[in-house]
Specification:
Elements (H helix, E strand, L loop, with lengths): L17 E2 L8 H4 L9 E2 L5 E5 H10 L8 H7 L2 E4 L6 E6 L12 H4 L9 E3 L1 H4 L14 H20 L2 E5 L1 E2 L3 E2 L11 H22 L13 H9 L3 E2 L6 H9 L9 H36 L15 H19 L4 H7 L2 H10 L9 H8 L9 H8 L11 E2 L16 E2 L23 H5 L8 E4 L4 E9 L4 E8 L8 E12 L2 E14 L2 H22 L1
Parallel strand pairs: 5-6, 5-7, 9-10
Antiparallel strand pairs: 1-2, 3-4, 3-6, 8-10, 11-12, 13-14, 14-15, 15-16, 16-17
Length: about 550
């Protein structure tokens, strides 16, 4: 039988734990008069089941087949025990299931990493939450186990928050992929890297063949394909980085900036070698490209398949793949930077639209309330613009809010319709905590700078560059260029967007965005991004003198 805590059993004093994202840009009165700028989540939790780490290691070493069993059997064997999370030190095992029926059928996620666990206890969902309650087992589920399952699933983020440490473990998979089992929606990383590395080597070999410029020192060797082969044998599927439920765990886990998964550590080292070598070759390409272009115009023969692309673009595509892969690896970490982006209302919508994956969109009615804790726009303006780009136009009246949501996610999770006075921003496409009002936006907040045409601003340490191309106060519209160097695992890209608003540019009560142009980076875009970033840095340096 299973013992469940009742209110009568809870005699000792409870502690409440809270999480919030600090708002450094605005005060409570600026954003939500009479209320906080950040939401508060109750993280009190008094019971859960945990795995004894030493017993766990012993069973994996001596009887690994037994460790394929779930909570029901391991609890009976004494490997899983009932504990108060506040009174023990434990590591939270954050991972993605490899199959619908079992999270790790070969146990490799555990066996390859259990040695690095330093706490006496571990929390692993397969072992610490009743599994037969999932209705995947032919035997009837115990009603009390179902109750415990539901309680555990609603409180697992609280267990994350009290963990002393975490282990971020990705899916084991042949090759190197992101959602590798789903070719329609996934990214076949190893295939793309091999293709672009092959094209880059052919392109640079042609440049060396037909140009006369002498290099100072020894030329870098053309070993891109060798390095890519090493990378492609990582044996992981990186969908964990963009899985919504996994992202929620990372928002509440202790902050960490280092990978602990043995396969991700090897992958990161191989990726660093490849990126350094590709940068060396890109510098050589920059020196040869002008003469190469002139000679190609004069009908100098080049390798088949290269004449249709701009010189240097093959290397640019390879660098883009590398940077996107680095972005996915960065997303796997429970860092404060990632937490701030996931838990901000403006950037969270960009993640939902362009990055995150989820099995059932209906789950967002639960996730939204836990993710969105911060409502300050700060540096999130360009992400907000892209998250609402090309949605249906805003309604004509900004006085009432219907709180309908974008078509990607059902509107059921939205708060009920509330009266929205004309002095507040009307934004029905984003999720805000119920009852929270949002002050009107200025163009500086949305774009990141004032009304000076051609002004350039960088955000997220230069990974995103924005430039105001034009503004028309009378027509209430502006054109914005956004250059993205692969932020949040996105493909490095550049686009221009038309921003339209109601109200004034200093007090926008409704915003609409249309995409004018959008595409992945070529080498010229990569160079332009670097130049814009350099201009910003020079301007900042001059301002400090």
């Amino acid at each position: 039988m299973y013992k469940l805590l009742s209110t009568g059993d809870e005699k000792r004093k409870r502690k409440k734990y809270y999480v919030s994202v600090k708002n450094a840009a605005s005060t409570p009165s600026e954003s939500t008069p009479g209320g906080p700028t950040t939401a508060i989540v109750d993280l009190s939790c008094n019971f859960a089941y945990f795995v004894n780490t030493e017993k766990f290691r012993w069973f994996i070493d001596n009887f690994p087949d037994l460790m394929l069993f779930p909570w029901e059997q391991l609890r009976a064997m004494g490997v899983v025990e009932y504990k108060d999370p506040s009174n023990i030190e434990y590591t939270f095992f954050s991972h993605q299931w490899e199959t619908p029926g079992h999270p790790f059928p070969d146990l490799l996620q555990l066996s390859e990493n259990i040695s690095s666990c330093t706490t006496p206890w571990m929390w692993v969902d397969w072992y610490c939450v009743p599994q037969w309650a999932r209705n995947t087992n032919p035997f009837p589920a115990d009603p009390k186990a179902i109750t415990l399952f539901l309680i555990s699933m609603k409180a697992f983020h609280k267990v994350c928050a009290k963990a002393a440490d975490s282990m971020i473990i990705v899916k084991r998979h042949e090759g190197l992929k992101m959602r590798g089992y789903d070719k329609a929606n996934g990214w076949q990383i190893d295939t793309d890297l091999r293709d672009t590395a092959c094209r880059a080597e052919e392109e640079l070999a042609d440049m060396r063949k037909v140009t006369t410029q002498k290099m100072i020192g020894k030329r870098p060797t053309l070993q891109l394909k060798v390095l890519v082969d090493e990378l492609s044998n990582a044996g992981v599927d990186l969908e964990y980085a963009i899985r919504a439920w996994c992202a929620l765990e990372r928002c509440f886990l202790p902050a960490s900036s280092k990978h602990k998964d043995v396969r991700l550590i090897r992958l990161q080292k191989s990726l660093e070698k490849l990126h350094k070598h590709a940068n060396d070759l890109a510098r050589e390409s920059d020196k040869l490209v002008d003469e190469y272009k002139r000679r190609r115009v004069n009908s100098i023969k080049v390798s088949p398949g290269l004449s249709e692309q701009e010189p240097g673009d093959a290397l640019s595509l390879l660098l883009s793949d590398i940077e996107r892969l680095e972005g996915l690896l960065q997303l796997c970490l429970p860092t404060d930077e990632n937490r701030g982006i996931y838990m901000n209302a403006w950037s969270y919508e960009y993640l939902k639209k362009n990055i995150l994956t989820i099995s059932s969109a209906a789950d967002y009615q639960y996730l939204d309330k836990l993710f969105v804790q911060d409502m300050s726009i700060e540096t999130q303006g360009t992400l907000y613009m892209q998250s609402i780009a090309d949605h249906k136009e805003m309604t004509t009246k900004a006085e009432t809010s219907t709180h309908t949501h974008n078509t990607q996610h059902p509107p059921a999770h939205q708060p009920p319709a509330t009266s929205q006075p004309s002095g507040w921003l009307h934004e029905p496409r984003l999720y805000f905590p119920q009852g929270q009002k949002v002050k009107p936006l200025s163009i500086k907040e949305v774009v990141g700078y004032g009304r000076e045409v051609n002004a350039i601003v960088e955000t997220f340490d230069g990974q995103r560059i924005g430039q105001l191309k034009s503004i028309d106060e009378d027509s209430k519209c502006a054109t914005i260029l956004i250059s993205d160097a692969g932020f949040l695992g996105a493909t490095p890209s550049v686009g221009t967007f038309k921003l339209m608003w109601k109200g004034s540019s200093e007090s926008m009560t409704a915003v609409d965005v249309k995409t004018n142009e959008y595409g992945p980076w070529g080498m010229a875009d990569r160079v332009a991004h670097a130049k814009r970033r350099k201009m910003v840095r020079m301007s900042q340096s001059m301002g400090q003198i």
